[in-house]
Amino acid sequence: MSQKESLLGRSVSQILELLQPLGEPEYRARQIYKWIHHHNVDHFQEMSNIPKSLRSILSDHFQLKTLQLAQKTEALDRTEKYLWKLADHRMVESVLIPESRRNTICISSQVGCSLGCQFCATGTMGFLRNLTPGEIVEQVLQVKKLSRHTLTNVVFMGMGEPLINYQRTIQASQILGDPEGAAIATKKITISTSGVVPKIYQYTDEAHHYGLAISLHAPEQKLREKIMPIAMKFPLDELMESVRYYMRAKKRNRVTFEYVLLSGINDSPAEARQLISLLSPFRCKLNLIPCNQNNLGFHPPAAEHLDKFIKTLLNAPFAITVRKNRGEDITAACGQLAVEVQEKAIFMK
Ligand code: SF4
Question: Which of 57, 60, 311, 321 is the most buried (most CB within 10 A)?
């Protein structure tokens, strides 16, 4: 039996198009859109201002949620990891990080990833497929219901490179940031990229209001190529030029650079000094992320190395934050998503 199409992740006009054979007006599509994305209902029967006959037709032909929760784990620091089974039995993860002033969900945009960053467990899976806008949005909607924490921020930093799955990422972000949709403030939605340069230009030209984060991980080309193969295709100077273009267009915005610290690879004071000269011209924040253990042979810097690195950066004219390792005991931390997923995927099929 063929799978019913899901209405989740569709815009009002896309829902209207599907309702066309029924001759339903635009406002009806808008009501349905709002029930799905704003009220987060699980069943068409809950849509109380939709005529009963239409609700029955909708449930005969369409479905709403398609992600099945395979596992939810909570770390000692209250970080929650959600493992989802997709309709085609593939698996993806989302991670909720509760903090004192915000609760951030880190969502996936692809199953696996083609970019093969050396320190990243997802990269070892290779690329399996893009997620649909519905599968991206649903991670947020389901966690809204399943977590006791109120979601405030969304970051595209789970499995996959969101700018390679560009149109679906943007459509999902539009629904997440729509007051009639998931109603997350657009400034609290951040799209993180490893540096897909042409898409940064496109993103800038389309004038989206979501935050942009750049996964930098090295302050110079040769080292970046070693850690992130994408740097061979889009060199560092071209990446920084695209960020300059973005900054010029977004006069009041600042950009975040993510920097995973890998012991003995990119964590020396020399690299810290290179970072200062590379990033000083930008209104930016540098987010340092000591890497996590994930069986790929990388280690976080020893405390004294981290200390030296940070001290070297103290005179930098930009803000610096050091991300605490969250959820490490449940492998929900940065660069850890995937290996377990693969094992579980085999188990779940
Ligand atoms: S760090 Fe991001 S872009 Fe790089 S392999 Fe992992 S998921 Fe892909």
Answer: 57
For residue 212, what are the β-bridge partners? Answer: 191
Catalytic option among 93, 138, 161, 258: 93
Q: Provide the pairing of β-strand 91-98 with 103-106.
A: antiparallel
Which of 284, 291, 285 is CA-nearest to residue 306? 291
Cβ atoms of 333 and 299 within 8 Å: the answer is no
Q: Name residue 340's amino acid.
A: E
**Euclidean distance between CA atoms 289 and 300, whole angstroms:** 9
Residue bearing tokens 């692809």? 110
Question: Residue 346's pLDDT is what?
Answer: 28
Task: Tell me the residue length of the chain.
Answer: 349
Query: 257 pairs with which residues across the strands?
Result: 214, 286
Instruction: Give distance in angstroms: CA of 341 to centre of ligand 1.
Output: 15
What atom of ligand 1 comes closest to residue 159's alpha carbon? 7
Side-chain-side CA neighbours of residue 81 (13 Å): 25
Say which amino acid occupies 111: V
Q: Are 156 and 131 contacting, i.e. CB atoms less than 8 angstroms apart?
A: no
Please give the Cα distance from 265 to 129 (Å, whole number). Answer: 31
In one-letter notation, the amino acid at residue 184 is I
Please identify which residue in the block is written with the tokens 């924490």: 149
What ligand 1 atom has the least distance to the C-alpha of 160?
Answer: 7
* Residue 324: predicted pLDDT: 73
Distance in angstroms (rounded) separating the CA atoms of residues 57 and 7: 13
DSSP string spanning 16-76? HHHHGGGT--HHHHHHHHHHHHTS--SSGGG-TTS-HHHHHHHHHHEES---EEEEEEE-T
Low-confidence spans in the chain with pLDDT less than 50 = 1, 333, 339-349
Structural domains in the chain, CATH included, are 5-63 (1.10.150.530), 68-348 (3.20.20.70)
Query: Do residues 98 and 170 make contact, with C-beta atoms less than 8 angstroms apart?
Result: no
Catalytic pick from 106, 113, 120, 334? 334
Residue 340 among the catalytic residues: no
Q: And the tokens for 44?
A: 């068409």
Answer yes or no: 271 catalytic. Answer: no
Structure tokens at 115: 């970019």
| Relative orientation angle of helices 12-19 and 26-37, to the nearest 10 degrees | 120
